[in-house]
Design a protein that fits this description.
This protein has a single domain, classed as P-loop containing nucleotide triphosphate hydrolases (Rossmann fold), CATH 3.40.50.300. It is 35% helix and 28% strand. It contains 7 helices and 10 strands. It has a 6-stranded mixed beta sheet with strand order 6-7-8-3-9-10. α3 crosses α4 and α4 crosses α5. It is globular and about 45 Å long.
């Protein structure tokens, strides 16, 4: 499903920063993997490379048999749109759109008709427990509810891969636990491949595989 071969990332500026040293990694379909490590260890860089949001300085990232380095920008956009759902720490919802409209947006961009789009948005918001909040704007919802909307949006096409960057990092402990349970349940229900970047060891403990990064290197890869 996901394979990295000799992948590294270097940022050039006033001084060169090595964000990731060359690494090899294979993640099978249906795995739920936590990526942990201190700030600056390369966690988000690794997630961005897997998600095609950035390109490696060297090596190759392959998603479901497609080598990302060989894709033109529009083909890479298509792959992200069709195969990868993203969940971010700060939700990234459009403040002027309702919950249903935020979830619908990726489907409108895919050219879905209005009726089909509304049905899917309603289905997903029901799935994440927000059936009664569909017409609310983001600032009318709690942090946990906004993250549920973000999850529903990420699942708009039921992508085979779900990438979550600190999905509970901006939430209190109780709400974070609820969001984690929701992600785990969706993983079990749809056999989605899930990668979660987190500082929270309780989040990592819920995943069946944990990658530990330090200074741009994978220092431990354990299954639990």
């Amino acid at each position: 499903m996901i394979e990295l071969s000799g992948v590294s990332k270097t940022f050039d500026g006033s001084r060169q920063v090595i964000a990731l040293h060359p690494l090899d990694l294979q993640i099978s379909k249906g795995e739920m993997v936590a990526i942990i490590g201190p700030s600056g260890s390369g966690k988000s860089t690794l997630l961005n490379l897997i998600g095609g949001l950035d390109r490696p300085s060297a090596g190759e990232v392959t998603i479901d048999g497609e080598a990302l380095g060989t894709l033109r920008d529009d083909d890479l956009t298509r792959l992200r749109r069709d195969k990868i759902g993203f969940i971010f720490q700060f939700f990234n919802l459009l403040p002027s759109l309702s919950a249903a409209e935020n979830v619908s947006l990726p489907l409108h961009l895919r050219g879905w008709d209005r009726k089909k789009t509304k049905e899917r948005a309603d289905e997903l918001l029901q799935l994440v427990g927000l059936g009664s909040r569909m017409e609310h704007l983001p600032d009318e919802m709690s942090g946990g509810e906004r993250q549920r909307v973000a999850i529903a949006r990420a699942l708009s096409i039921y992508p085979p891969i779900l990438l979550a960057d600190e999905p509970t990092g901006n939430l209190d402990t109780t709400t974070g636990g609820e969001i984690l349970s929701l992600i785990s349940g969706l993983h079990d229900q749809f056999n989605t491949t899930v990668l979660v970047v987190t500082h929270d060891l309780s989040v990592a403990a819920s995943c069946r595989r944990v990658l530990s990064l330090r200074d741009g290197r994978i220092i431990q890869d354990r299954r639990q």
